[in-house]
Amino acid sequence: MEESDVTLAINGGIGFGSKLNAKQLAAITKYMNENDEIELTIFQQLYITVPESKVAMLKEEFEQVGLACYPVGNYVKSLRTCNFCKGAEEEGMPVAIELNKILAGRPVPFTLRPAYTGCPIGCGEPLIHDIGVMKVRSGYNLYIGGKAKGTDARVGALILEEATPEELYGAVDQIIEIYSAQGKRREPFAKFVDRYGFENIYHAIAGSSPQ
Ligand code: SF4
Question: Is the CB of 84 under 6 A from ligand 1?
Answer without folding.
Answer: yes
